[in-house]
Structures are given as C-alpha cells and as structure tokens.
Automatic annotation (TrEMBL):
GO terms for molecular function: beta-lactamase activity; long-chain fatty acyl-CoA hydrolase activity; metal ion binding. It comes from the Eukaryota. The keyword Cell inner membrane does not apply. It comes from Marmota marmota marmota. This is Acyl-coenzyme A thioesterase MBLAC2. It is an enzyme of class 3 (hydrolase). PANTHER family: ACYL-COENZYME A THIOESTERASE MBLAC2 (PTHR42951:SF4), METALLO-BETA-LACTAMASE DOMAIN-CONTAINING (PTHR42951). Its EC number is 3.1.2.2, 3.5.2.6.
Length: 279
C-alpha cells in the first residue's frame, strides 16, 4: 500500500493540516498535525509509521508553496513527539530532525517498547500496509533525537512560534505546544475529549493534577481558544476547562487505589508482550 493510500488529511486553515492513518481503526489512532511556517515546518506526532509519512507530505503537495518554483528547496522539517507512546512516535524514525522532551529522550534513543507502551493488534489494522504484515512484528524503532526539549523552549517557524510546555501525568515527558499568538494548544495526550489515561507506566496522578491546574490557568488568562489534541476532535476553551477541572475533582484516594491496580496489570501485560521475539 502506498503512503498516499495509507494517510488522509484535511486543512484547518492558517497553515495547519490534520492527518490520520486511514486503516488504523482504533481509539489509539493518533492525530498527526502539520504546522507550516515561513522558515520551518513542524510535524507534531507521527502515528505508527507503517507507511512513510514524509513521502505522503511531499507526494500530497502539503509541503509545496503556492507560486513557488517546482525546483525550490523545501523548508526544514522537524518532527516533534508530544510523548513517546507508540501511537505517536512510531514514525519518528522516518525523519532526519526529531525533537522530544528530555524526560523521554533516552527511552526513544534505545527503542524502549515498554515505555512506549507498544500494544497493537491485527484487528486494529484493517488493511495490511504491506504483504504479510502482522501486528506482532511492530516495534517503535530506536531514534536518536536531534533536539532535546525543555519546558519554556520555543520552536521558531519564522512567522509563528510554538512554546513547549512540559505537562507530565499521562507520561513523564508529555508536552503541549502553545501557539500564543493564535491561542492554539497542541495538546497531545495531555488532554483530549475523552477519559484521560493515568494508569500506564510512568503515569503519575499528582503530576497530572498539576498539569490540569496549568491548563485551567491558560483558560483563566484567556491564552487558549482552540485545542488540537492527540486523539479525537478539536475543542475550545470551555471544554478544556471542564476536562481539566473534572480530572482534578476525581483524583482522590479511591481513584489512586484503582489506578494503582490498573497500572500494575498494564505494566505486567506490556512486559510480557514486549518480551516476545517476532518471527
């Protein structure tokens, strides 16, 4: 299957494109965002990487400028991982320039499929990307990041800047990217319009509460009007406030006890799954 078949996209305007993997039918299917700038383009998360995302970006014309000469050199392209979970980081190996938060840089560099929580089944991939492909063969490949991110760093695209916000809780290296001028938040799995997951390896409820408090502050200060999340549909400031507030209100003792049990089961399952050797 070609990259042009595997992916699909739609424009949200203002140089932002929403890309998805058409034949990965799962609640884990991540949103891939392309943000175009005057001096640099950024891909936020890369999906599973079962087909070439860079090939799709070029072949579909997403990296071409209207009126530009056909032989004009493309702008630099940076792939940023909001975190290293498999559904977001699987395609990072396809890019020359890769950025990730320092808390997860080592896991990515060694291809740690326990920390990437790799968990993929044949039933979720409804059309095989290549003949004979099987989910048990899938692993997040080791990638040496070219850019290590810290809270407060700014990724300069020329006519727009994305500020890195370290927002742990879902994972220890989760980040949001904040376009302050346009009041847009690329939130990864920090927050999306669904049940927030805090029971995976390296999830931490106390960190998540602090992260949600930062999200509420962004809304209170009028700094976010639109959220482009790692899963499901986009939403606005009012929904962001409600999602963050609801998490904080439910993060009590009972939640912590049940989450501990879930995390233990998830960790055991992931260790067993990722200790298997592919044929």
């Amino acid at each position: 299957m070609s990259a042009l078949e595997w992916y699909a996209h739609k424009s949200l305007g203002d140089g932002i494109f929403w890309i998805q993997e058409r034949f990965y039918e799962s609640g884990n299917r991540a949103n891939i965002w392309l943000v175009r700038g005057s001096e640099q383009d950024v891909v936020i998360d890369t999906g599973l990487g079962l087909r070439s995302l860079p090939e799709y970006l070029y072949s579909s014309g997403l990296l071409q400028d209207c009126g530009a000469k056909e032989d004009a050199a493309p702008r630099p392209l940076l792939a940023v991982a909001t975190h290293v979970h498999f559904d977001h980081s699987g395609g990072l190996y396809q890019f020359d320039q890769v950025a990730v938060h320092h808390a997860e840089a080592e896991a990515l560099a060694r291809g740690d499929n326990f920390e990437t929580v790799t968990w993929l089944s044949d039933s979720e991939v409804v059309r095989a990307p290549s003949p004979g492909w099987r989910a048990r063969q899938f692993r997040v490949q080791a990638v040496q990041p070219t850019l290590i991110l810290q809270d407060g760093d700014v990724i300069n695209l020329g006519d727009r800047q994305l500020t890195v916000m370290h927002m742990p809780g879902h994972s220890r290296g989760s980040i949001c990217l904040h376009d302050k001028d346009r009041k847009i938040l690329f939130s990864g799995d920090v927050v999306y319009d669904g049940s927030l997951i805090d029971w995976l390896p390296y999830s931490r409820i106390s960190d998540y509460v602090g992260t949600c408090e930062r999200l509420i502050e962004l809304v209170d200060r009028g700094l976010v009007e639109k959220v482009l999340p790692g899963h499901f549909n986009t939403f606005g400031a009012e929904r962001l406030f409600r999602l963050a507030s609801n998490y904080i209100s439910k993060a009590g003792i009972c939640h912590k006890v049940s989450t501990f049990a879930l995390r233990s089961l998830a960790s055991l399952a992931l260790r067993v799954t990722n200790s298997r050797t592919s044929p």
